[in-house]
Amino acid sequence: MTFATLLLPLAVAIVGAFAIEAAASPQRPSLRPADLAIRFLGYALITLFWFQFSWRPWLAASSCLLTLAILSVVDQLKRKVIGEPVVFSDLALLAQVPRHPQLYYTLPLTDLRIAGPLLIGLATVIAWYVLEPAALPEGAGASALAILGLPAGLAALALLGLSPFGQAALRRLFPRPDLARDVARYGLVATMMGYGLRRLGEMDVRPLAGIGGEPDDEVVVVVQLESFLDPTRLGGPDLPLMARIRSQAAQYGRLAVPAHGAYTMRSEHAVLTGLDPDDLGFGRYDPYLARKGEEPTSLARLARASGFATVFVHPFHRDFFDRAQVFRRLGFDHLVMEEDFGNAPRVGPYISDVAVAERILAEVAPDGAHAPGGRRFVLSVTMENHGPWKPGRLTGIDEPLAQYLHHVAHTGQAVERLIDGLAGRRATLCVFGDHAPSLPDCRPPPSGPVATDYALFRFGRENGQPPVRLDLTAAQLGCVLRDALAPKRTGLRG
Fold it and tell me: Within 10 A of 158 (CB to CB), how many other CB atoms are there?
């Protein structure tokens, strides 16, 4: 093996990867020499990553080009639907794709349209592996040293990035998350690597959850409504629920959420902790992945400290987003997941919102299974209106917006059922949309994610105050809810 043997394939990989990404990117890539050097380093590292598995230079170069082609296609789709480039934390979701392909706008691995290209690709790699000779040094000892040395060198480089010296250098390159700018400067690969190392090197600074006064409620219910916003904003009919919100809620308004069309966990985390995305550093892109539920400011932990039994209700797989483990750490004592819904009705592929509302009311009933006669805090995340909205989902309704509006009508009915069921109790009910739907009729504007809607009801009180329109961020809503669990002297709206 000679250096020249590796140089030409590496050069082809770097130049080809730049051409692929430049052609696919909606932004003009930076041509500053320093930016190009970092971008090309990223391409070189990807090539070396693949090279360590085969020691075949042209196979590694082709693997780099294929990696960039796939990343660029996914990046284009993600920008179109969600308005955000691919980010390092998206790699953690890869394991979810074959298990829940319907959630990622893809097909099962058993479908020939997916299995066919994968098998052809695998056969091509095997053939290439046989035809191209390995570029290992001569001699068994030298070959073994090279085979062990390259992975060790790549690992040492990653550890260097986590060292004080490496983190100082990375802070100069990536002082704060600015994904679109950094991808335009350094490319997808270098930005993903840099952001991942910045996240691993961050020290979490999290304020402790303080305890306020005696809770005023016997029941606090918070429901995150999948893809919910007022349908009139999409040209749909006015829900009866919206009239009740405007006339009966203690406060309501628009909710500024951290993402558009996806990333439910970002809104969940903001409401549960009262922490803005800017408080999370490079962990903002997937707070569950970054923090694993270890959140002293969690509403569930605060509720438990205030004497509430804590229940999480979500009619979907407990492994999705690793919710079962994360929500235990967040402070939820009891988890009601998909297997607990038994023969509950589905509307389309998911458990109906009305069925979820009925289960919530059963959980907070005075003689409920958890803490009978005691206080209860319930967080629920609905699923009925989860995308994608495509033909075949609903009988006789194929247009995506029409499907969405069909489901959102059920969402309105479910919330009205909760209002009626809690009206005679000393209770707080909060409902909010996690993000706007990823529909062709609702694309993210350049200014950021489309805001959703929220409403806060206080039952069992006669204060005579009219509803208040107050627009909030998801984190601010979480801070408002803290007062329902451990009120301050200034009151709920303080």
Answer: 15
* Positions of E strands within 393-491: 427-433, 452-459, 468-469, 472-473
Task: Give the dihedral sign, CA 421/424/430/433.
Answer: positive
Residue ranges and CATH numbers for the domains of the chain are 3-201 (no CATH), 219-485 (3.40.720.10)
Q: Write the pLDDT tens digit of every residue in 157-189.
A: 999 999 999 999 999 999 999 999 999 999 999
DSSP string, 89-101: GGGGGTTHHHHSG
Q: Could you tell me the pTM of the whole model?
A: 0.89
Give the closest residue to 485 by CA, choosing from 206, 158, 217.
Answer: 217
Cα distances from 419 to residues 245, 286, 431, in angstroms, run 10, 32, 10
Q: Is the torsion defined by CA of 220, 226, 228, 231 positive or negative?
A: negative
Q: How many CB atoms lie within 10 A of CB 325?
A: 14
Tokens 């406060």 sit on residue: 251
DSSP E strands: which ranges in 348-388? Answer: 350-351, 375-381
The Cα 135–Cα 56 span in angstroms is 6
> pLDDT at position 494, please?
34
pLDDT at 2: 52
Query: In terms of Cα–Cα distance, which of 363, 292, 279 is closest to 324?
Result: 292
Nearest to 408 by CA among 400, 396, 398: 400
Nearest to 430 by CA among 484, 393, 358: 484
Residue pointed to by tokens 């039952």 = 459
Classify burial at 110, counting beta carbons within 10 Å of its beta carbon; exposed 0-12, middle 13-18, buried 19 or more: exposed
Q: What is the pLDDT of residue 6?
A: 84
Inter-helix orientation angle 400-422/353-364, to 10°: 20
Q: Percent of the chain having pLDDT more than 70? A: 90
CA distances from 370 to 73, 313, 318, 421 (A): 48, 13, 20, 18
Residues 171, 158, 283, 164, Cα dihedral to 10°: -40
Q: How far apart are CA 125 and CA 136, in angstroms?
A: 18
Please state at what angle helix 33-54 crosses helix 3-24, rounded to 10 degrees: 120
Rounded Cα gap, residues 150 and 146, in angstroms: 6
